[in-house]
């Protein structure tokens, strides 16, 4: 495929500032391209959106583009991303569209596409859509062959019932749960799911508002201070937080501490056992714990699409990224922050306080650094990294080159050199059992990179 074709899709769909990178005109053409890609006349497409002020505009215009090309449109309205994935699967639709910019600020919006099985579009599918948009390769229909629009907003109840059932949460053991929805797409459904599951729920930022007045939708320590304080002050059993489209979940323990993302992922992976999938930047604490229970860890490039593909290919029980993006193959292959929340509550019901579960998992010293590198030099730099970086070490156990270069050592320490997909940097991530070893690995890696850049 020609390299002249503009790249619209990033690691998680199309995303950018409204009226700059992401315009109504672009949304219309993506809808037209999608319609032709799935077969046009008579095909069905589910559409959902988050709370952003521009969401309704994109919903209207994408629905029009699909109908113009003969597709029927099933409108969910304002819903979390996982509801779109599940509805696409359960309604027998041919594709799904989620209009969201996830954790980005209010002025951003975006488009993410879903397959009939609830799996996000793969990179090769996105490149086809990009080519069709670039070449205006659409198949518009005559007045008598247009698609129709249907309201399926009542499907939300079916989705909630389904995640409660699959989570096996015990309604006879009510816990006090504080949930911070960031005024995003989970604002109504996440608290409702927890309440219908029998929990005692206190909400923060649960009024849908595309200006995100309570906090930025990125669920990190800086933005979750209110949640951390509230959990501790009111004596809650656990706190949960979502991003803007609620495909992610981050937990706060009963002491008001934000959980270590890798440890939280490990707690859930242990519940499933067997083969689990994570990304190249996840901590070795997952490998250590899975070894103890006879499980296996597989690693993929960063991005939930890669995790989902590997889960399918390897019949894995569970998969996720340290960011709080978890996939539950026993339910649907769309990342689901609401189901993740229910399941971590179930872990507390079954295994005791979250703080004790987190503290029982090993902590390893970690460094995360970025070295300035012009975007046009990244390819050349990473080629040298692949060819020569491993020469710097003599105790190597494993080398992964699926997304940057990840070198694992015999003592379970590791280092990852990976180019940023969005900024002019090459990133170094390293982990070791001692600060001394970590500093050694970090210094070698830093010097190597700075010399070749």
The count of helical stretches stands at 14
State the helicity in percent bands. 25-40%
Shape: globular
Q: Uncertain runs with pLDDT below 50, 5 residues or more?
A: none
- How far apart are the termini? 30 Å
Structural class from helices and strands?
Answer: alpha/beta
- What portion of residues belong to β-strands? 15-25%
Strand order of the largest sheet: 1-5-4-2-3-6
Whole-number mean pLDDT: 96
CA gyration radius, whole angstroms: 22 Å
Q: Care to count the β-strands?
A: 19
How does the major sheet shape up? 6 strands, mixed
Walk me through what this model shows.
- There is one protein chain.
- The chain is an alpha/beta fold and 453 residues long.
- The protein has 14 helices and 19 strands.
- The strands form 4 sheets. It has a 6-stranded mixed sheet with strand order 1-5-4-2-3-6, with helices on both faces.
- The mean pLDDT is 96.
- The chain is 36% helix and 21% strand.
- Helix 5 packs across helix 6 and helix 5 runs parallel beside helix 11.
């Amino acid at each position: 495929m020609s390299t002249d074709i503009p790249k619209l899709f990033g690691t998680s769909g199309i995303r950018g500032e409204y009226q700059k990178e992401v315009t109504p005109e672009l949304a219309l053409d993506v809808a037209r391209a999608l319609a032709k890609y799935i077969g046009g006349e008579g095909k069905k497409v589910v559409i959902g959106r988050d709370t952003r002020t521009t969401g309704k505009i994109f919903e209207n215009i994408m629905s029009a583009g699909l109908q113009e090309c003969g597709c029927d449109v099933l409108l969910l309205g304002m819903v979390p991303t996982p509801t779109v994935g599940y509805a696409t699967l359960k309604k027998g639709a041919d594709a799904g569209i989620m209009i969201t910019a996830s954790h980005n600020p209010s002025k951003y919006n975006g488009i993410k596409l879903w397959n009939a099985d609830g799996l996000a579009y793969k990179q090769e599918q996105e490149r086809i859509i990009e080519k069709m948009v670039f070449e205006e390769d659409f198949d518009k229909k005559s007045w008598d062959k247009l698609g129709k629009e249907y309201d399926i907003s009542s499907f939300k109840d079916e989705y909630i019932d389904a995640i409660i059932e699959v989570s096996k949460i015990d309604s006879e053991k009510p816990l006090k749960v504080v949930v911070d929805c960031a005024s995003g797409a989970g604002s109504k459904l996440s608290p409702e799911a927890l309440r219908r599951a029998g929990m005692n729920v206190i909400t923060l930022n649960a009024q849908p508002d595309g200006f995100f007045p309570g906090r930025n939708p990125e669920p990190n320590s800086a933005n979750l201070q209110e949640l951390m304080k509230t959990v501790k002050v009111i004596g809650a059993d656990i706190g949960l937080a979502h991003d803007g489209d609620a495909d992610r979940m981050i937990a706060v323990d009963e002491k008001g501490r934000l959980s270590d993302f890798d440890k939280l992922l490990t707690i859930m992976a242990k519940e499933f056992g067997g083969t689990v999938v994570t990304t190249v930047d996840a901590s070795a604490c997952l490998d250590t714990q899975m070894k103890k229970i006879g499980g296996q860890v597989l690693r993929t490039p960063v991005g939930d699409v890669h995790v989902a593909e590997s889960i399918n290919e390897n019949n894995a029980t569970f998969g996720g990224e340290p960011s709080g993006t978890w996939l539950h193959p026993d339910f649907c292959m769309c990342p689901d922050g609401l189901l993740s929340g229910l399941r971590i509550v179930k872990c507390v019901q079954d295994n005791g306080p979250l703080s004790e579960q987190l503290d029982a998992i090993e902590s390893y010293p970690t460094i995360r650094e970025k070295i300035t590198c012009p975007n046009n030099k990244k390819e050349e730099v990473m080629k040298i990294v692949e060819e020569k970086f491993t020469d710097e070490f003599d105790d190597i156990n494993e080398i992964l080159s699926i997304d940057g270069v990840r070198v694992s050592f015999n003592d379970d320490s590791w280092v990852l050199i990976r180019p940023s997909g969005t900024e002019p940097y090459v990133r170094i991530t390293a982990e070791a059992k001692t600060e001394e070893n970590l500093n050694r690995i970090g210094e070698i890696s830093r010097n190597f990179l700075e010399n070749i850049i």
